[in-house]
Amino acid sequence: MQAVVFHDVGNIQLEDVPEPKIKEPTDAIVRLTASAICGTDLHFIRGTFPGMQEGTILGHEGVGIVEETGSAVRNFQPGDRVVIPSTIGCGCCSYCRAGYFAQCDNANPNGKEAGTTFFGGPRGSGPIQGLQAEYARIPFANVGLVRLPDNVSDEQAILLSDIFPTGYFGAHLAEIKAGDTVAVFGCGPVGIFAIISAHLFDAGRVLAVDCVESRLDLARSHGAEIINFEKEDPVETIQSLTGGIGVDRVIDAVGVDALHSHHGPAARTEDPDLKPQDIAPDKNSQGDLWVPGDAPAQALKWCVSAAAKAGTLSIIGVYPPQMDAFPIGQSMNKNLTINMGNCNHRRYLPHLVRLVQSRAIDPASVLTQEAPIVSAIEAYESFDQRQSGWMKVELKPAG
């Protein structure tokens, strides 16, 4: 089968690889009918989230058809159409039972303290082979698959695998109450779904901060008041728009690869001639792999500064374990509540599937590009450059 395979920082290839097999009674094999490229995949390719192993199949978003099940999978059978939650949980341990699937005790082969397990990730997450392929092995499939109704399309369902639940998780962590004013930093796919989800939690106003005009336009179409940080100071603007108080809730949907007008990877990611295989690891002043300082620290500083006293900061953008910059003193002096973490996708998926089934939400409005998997490398290039109109990319496996 064909799959998108990681080899090194800046080096991914479309290759023929062996089809997966059942390894455990709780496994299932799914034939992918749709997968997607996520900003998290770019972290791995850029080297800003280290630890990727050569030969790992990328991708943690998938929709497909069950082909085969292990003997312990009693709730699915071949032919069932399913969406695959990005994070993996066993469903048995105390964390999964409490809804913290991202902190499962049993899913990560590196041990209980290793953290979140997800498809197509670095060494510390498993690794478990990813979903940008024609077939995938799904561990703990009785929990790690969610059945799809006939009236939910692949284009809708692929956004349910990771992006929509993550945005909803961000709104949940923000503790949004009816009438709250919310700021969302970052209007990529997760940020857009954080905006949508803030409205689902009855936010009174939503302010959206980014610098890419096409993304700001999409945020505005979903009812957000937009702020372009390349044209105005976002904190000053938020203070002005809130009568000098700040916002009740802030959601950081940016993560480690934040853009900034004078810092970080802006020039690199906007170079129209850049290809994934040409990306060299960024270096800090000591020559180490680039663990960004100014850009993400600036985004977090903006979030903290924009929050009202006794407000809540929700952090759902991806940060690697090496990231240690945070304005803790300012946060403490403002009595901020800070909630963060990896999304517990399986906790939210059944509810979100029902919302889509009832036509209350159409997540496909955020899907802007569709490409066959044979064009995956070119799609990665366009997505990495943040080209206008490239918000979210669906990959269609061969056949």
Distance between the termini: 10 Å
The named CATH superfamily of the largest domain: Medium-chain alcohol dehydrogenases, catalytic domain
- How much of the sequence is in beta strands? 15-25%
Beta strand count: 15
**Tally of DSSP helical segments:** 13
Outline the low-pLDDT stretches.
260-294
At the fold tier of CATH, the topology name of the largest domain is: Quinone Oxidoreductase, Chain A, domain 1
CATH first level of the largest domain: Alpha Beta
The second-level CATH architecture of the largest domain is: Alpha-Beta Complex
Give the helix proportion (percent range): 25-40%
Described by the principal axes of the CA atoms, the overall outline is: globular
Structure commentary:
There is one protein chain. This protein has 399 residues and is α/β, with parallel strands linked by helices. The chain folds into 2 domains: 214 residues, Quinone Oxidoreductase, Chain A, domain 1, CATH 3.90.180.10; 173 residues, NAD(P)-binding Rossmann-like Domain (Rossmann fold, 3-Layer(aba) Sandwich), CATH 3.40.50.720. 27% of the residues lie in helices and 21% in strands. The chain contains 13 helices and 15 strands. Strands 3, 4, 5, 6, 7, 14 and 15 form a 7-stranded mixed sheet that branches. Helix 5 crosses helix 6 and helix 8 runs parallel beside helix 10. 52% of the residues are buried. About 9% of the residues have low confidence.
Can you give me a brief rundown of this structure?
It contains 13 helices and 15 strands. It has 399 residues and is α/β, with parallel strands linked by helices.
